[in-house]
Amino acid sequence: MKSVMNFRAIAPYQTPYGKLEANRLFRGGALHALSQEDKKTLEDQYQISLVIDLRSFEEVKHQPDQSLNHVKHIHMTPFPSLAHNMSVPGVQRKLVDMGEDAHNFMSELYGRFVTEPKAQQTYAQLLQYLIDPEYTNFYFHCSAGKDRTGFGAFLIMKLLEIDESDIIKEYLLSNREDAIQQFYKDKVFGDDTDGMSLAQVRFLSTVSPDYLKKSEEAIAAIGGFDVYRKEILKFSDEDKQTLIKKFVQKS
Q: Going by C-beta distance under 8 Å and a sequence separation of 6 or more, which residues neighbour residue 179?
């Protein structure tokens, strides 16, 4: 999809209950530059019924998503404040200037996906929408579709008990060179990247296994994924079975 950054379906990975159904769960970047061709693809071919926008209020105001016909659009954000917003002017330049410290900064951000109350509320809400029978096919996104969206995909795949190696494999698809080249060409991070080299933009556009590791460490500190699921995300055993039945094709 040429007009949406980092767009992809979560592939039909194997679970203990069967394979994840193809073309049900889609992830990526914002829909503000959506072409008519891609809009038709989302509406007709992929039959998206719900779009979940994880960006901050400032990002949404600056680059609002284009609406899709007969598709509900919901905005929820794990980090509403500018302090956590990776897509506002000045932040990307500061990250590049931080050098090695930026890697640690991003790792800490992934820890806060787990521990901050607003983030907990947002991802709990996202999961409840996934099991809502009113909606069938989903598109969830942030600005570049790699961090806030990547953590959401991680949660969904963990709940479906997809193998850890496949979860990492899917997560690292955000590092595809073609996507990075597109980020650079289309200036997905805005005018803040003026004068940056491709290597600098590549740093801003990629993810690291170290980031998800920080999330997993934070989850372990809570008591493990089941404790996090039940007590923090309020996602019950029954909810988990509903998710599996809805998105997994039995073997």
A: 5, 6, 205
Go through the chain and tell me how many residues it has: 251
Q: What SS3 state is found at 55? A: coil
Question: What pLDDT digit, counting tens, does each position of 156-214 carry?
Answer: 999 999 999 999 999 999 998 776 666 666 555 555 555 566 666 666 678 999 999 99
E strand or H helix at 249, and its extent? strand 248-250
The model's pTM is 0.90
Alpha carbons 52 and 140: distance in angstroms, whole number = 5
Instruction: Note the pLDDT tens digit of each residue in 200-222.
Output: 666 667 899 999 999 999 999 99
Give the residue extent of every domain in the chain.
8-239
Q: Which residues are registered as beta bridge partners of 137?
A: 48
Per CATH, domain 8-239 is 3.90.190.10: yes
Q: In sequence order, what E strands does 93-204 have?
A: 137-141
DSSP-assigned letter for residue 141: E
35's tokens: 């072409």
Instruction: Tell me the C-alpha distance between 89 and 201, whole Å.
Output: 14
